[in-house]
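Worked example 3 (structure in, sequence out).
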């Protein structure tokens, strides 16, 4: 059964899709069958990096199969195949379904998934996908917004990789995301600082971040001129196989491989035998069953961090009276707190005290 690895960034544009794509290639080169899912249907970053053509919407009988090309190190073999072919093969490769994954909305993609697998739950959909393609790993490029899709993907993760920039915005976001991951009892979590300036010394950053958040760092991704020049036109690890950035990504891949081996005796999170995290999933997912105005306010607070009431009203799209009433209710429920000095409201990271 495949291990689900969710890569989560605090914001767009920090290279999450690049890391997902390169890790898929590096794991494939180590002999594994790797599935890829992109929860952001609007972005399409994964397909751009792999130079894949569009396929008919909702066609779940086929998948993109990518494998190493012996003729050149900078290209991959690409072909559309049927699921039945995968079940007869043990070939290492990357398996990319032609549709993305808005997991929890009742859109055409999810309906197609449910019709194809005759299941109504995402956990069972991914379980069947893993079995059909005989996957070792399923990498999910999770969207940064704190949404229903984000929570659903994190709730299914065996391992999570949280990418952050070294600035105040991400430093505020990381504790919230780590609390969400903690609530879902994700077995293994790593931090990956990204776009790190070359002048910043590695050991000092690693020591400070690990001590602050009490989570291990899988690797530091330094800002690279070669990555900028590549401009999403290919896979960095294939164009620059001996580059220090590639070596760091190889180390991250090895840590994921080692983490999966340590979990060998533990059922995969989305398998029928697994009960991990189920007792904790509902409280956070209940956020998404709140009235629209409260759900909107929580989304803004989760995305932006501490915020004053005025800007919160402006961004919510609701009247001042509605926002104030909703804020007071969320405070009573323990989802957010108000700073008595600044009057800003923020997400209450310690949700265990929620009423």
């Amino acid at each position: 059964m495949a291990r689900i690895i969710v890569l989560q960034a605090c914001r767009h544009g920090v290279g999450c899709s690049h890391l997902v794509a390169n890790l898929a290639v590096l794991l494939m080169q180590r002999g594994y069958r790797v599935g890829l899912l992109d929860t952001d249907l609007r972005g399409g970053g994964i397909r751009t990096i792999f130079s894949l053509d569009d396929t008919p919407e909702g066609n779940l009988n086929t998948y993109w199969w990518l494998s190493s090309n012996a003729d050149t190190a900078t290209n991959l073999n690409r072909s559309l195949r049927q699921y039945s072919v995968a079940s007869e093969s043990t070939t290492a490769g990357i398996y990319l379904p032609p549709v993305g994954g808005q997991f929890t909305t009742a859109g055409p993609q999810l309906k197609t998934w449910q019709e194809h697998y005759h299941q109504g739950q995402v956990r069972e959909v991914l379980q069947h996908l893993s079995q059909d393609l005989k996957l070792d790993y399923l990498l999910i490029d999770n969207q940064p917004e704190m949404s229903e899709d984000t929570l659903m993907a994190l709730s299914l993760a065996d391992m999570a990789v949280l990418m952050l920039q070294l600035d105040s915005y991400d430093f505020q976001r990381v504790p919230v995301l780590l609390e969400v991951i903690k609530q879902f009892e994700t077995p293994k979590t790593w931090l990956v600082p990204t776009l790190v300036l070359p002048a910043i010394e590695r050991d000092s950053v690693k020591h400070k971040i690990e001590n602050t958040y009490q989570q291990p760092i899988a690797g530091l991704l330094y800002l690279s001129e070669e990555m900028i020049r590549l401009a999403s036109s290919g896979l960095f690890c294939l164009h620059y196989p001996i580059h220090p950035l590639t070596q760091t990504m190889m180390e991250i891949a090895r840590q994921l491989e080692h983490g999966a081996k340590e979990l060998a005796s533990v059922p995969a999170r989305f398998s029928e035998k697994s009960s991990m995290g189920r007792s904790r999933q509902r409280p956070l997912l209940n956020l998404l069953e709140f009235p629209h105005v409260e759900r909107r306010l929580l989304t803004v607070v989760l995305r932006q961090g501490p915020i004053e009431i005025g800007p919160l009203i402006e961004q919510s799209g609701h009247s001042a009276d509605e926002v104030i009433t909703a804020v007071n209710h969320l405070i009573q429920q323990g989802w957010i707190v108000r700073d008595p000095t600044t009057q800003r409201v923020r997400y209450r990271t310690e949700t265990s005290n929620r009423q």
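Notes: Residues 244-262 form the longest helix (19 residues). Residues 290-353 form a domain with the Arc Repressor Mutant, subunit A fold (CATH 1.10.10.10).
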